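For reproducibility, we list the full input for the zinc ion complex.
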Amino acid sequence: MKAAVLRAVHAPLTIEEVEIDRPGPREVLIRTGAVGVCHSDLHFIEGKYPCATPAILGHEAAGTVEAVGELVAYVRPGDRVITCLSVFCGHCAMCLSGRPALCTKSDVARRPGEAPRLSQGGTPIQQMFNLSAYAEQMLVHEHAVVKVEPDLPFAQLALIGCGVTTGLGAVLNTARVEPGSTVAVIGCGGIGLNCIQGALIGGAGRIIAIDTVPDKLEMAREFGATDVLDAAHGDVVERVRALTAGGVDYSFEAIGAKSAAEQAFAMLARGGTATIIGMIPVGQTIELDGAMFLGERRVQGSVMGSNRFRIDMPRYINWYRQGRLKLDELVTQRLPLAEINRAFADMVAGRVARSVITFD
Ligand SMILES: NC(=O)c1ccc[n+]([C@@H]2O[C@H](COP(=O)([O-])OP(=O)(O)OC[C@H]3O[C@@H](n4cnc5c(N)ncnc54)[C@H](O)[C@@H]3O)[C@@H](O)[C@H]2O)c1
Ligand SMILES: [Zn+2]
Ligand SMILES: [Zn+2]
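The corresponding predicted structure, in tokenized form, follows.
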């Protein structure tokens, strides 16, 4: 099968022929239908997060089950699934205490000594996020998929696999924004737009969207922002404080930048909570004004929207069917796998909410 391979940090991905193994007892082989291009993959290409090579990135995907291992009862060939990097082992303390997105993942990959899931002429290829979705097929643990109805398009389903789940989940699961509260979202890309629509669904009273790209601010309004701020001009924190008479109850950092994380904390009202979603480069620290903690301000992380994806994702699909969740508007362009590097370039240029690689 064909896959986009990362050979070295900073290098463009190359389309190569890769061998994929047959499913082990608890594994599922999937024909990829679509995969979204998320900024997290770019952080690995840019070396901001470590990654062994050769590797196959891609983690925001949906597809069709082609084959299952002998112990798999949850899905069977022909089923449509969304994959999720929050594959859960089901027996660690995090899984058992209801926080499977924090699973320690003891038992979800193949063990050393076993044949690799992905290889090329006998050389193993690193399976990223236990998924490696920039590929025509995926071989994953059965706990990395949720079964969905067969009538929805792959591109929209794929986006639920990361961006939607991360953005909505940060607002509804991690921060638990209350109806009527004030919210600011810094960065209105694939994640931030979903924070905005999560805040709208959660009943936020005011949703302030912040970005440096005017088109993104336009989209933010479509997704439910009540106010927009162009971060390219003027002090963002001052303007948020002025708009809200002192600061917001909830802020979300959806860029992966030290400065934006610091702004997220600095723009909080007394009692407010900043949720950092963006992947701040490994080794970078953020600086916060210590005296602000006396106002009971909090800062917290959020990974994959603190999801329990087999519960959350079908709910998001339901909202989409009811017209309460925008998915079609998130798909700016569909591209073949061969144009994956263009998708990253368009992301960097701020031209897209999401590019989606499709395989039809
Ligand atoms: N925590 C998680 O589980 C999780 C999951 C998925 C993605 N992420 C991270 O979330 C971040 C956002 O991902 P994405 O796919 O939405 O990226 P994206 O590139 O689609 O969006 C980023 C947005 O930030 C804007 N921006 C850049 N610099 C800015 C600044 N200084 N001020 C205001 N806006 C600015 C860009 O114009 C863009 O609209 C990334 O760091 C990604 O790795 C985290
Ligand atoms: Zn992602
Ligand atoms: Zn676990």
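The radius of gyration is 20 Å. The longest helix spans residues 154-174. Both points were considered when choosing residues for closer inspection.
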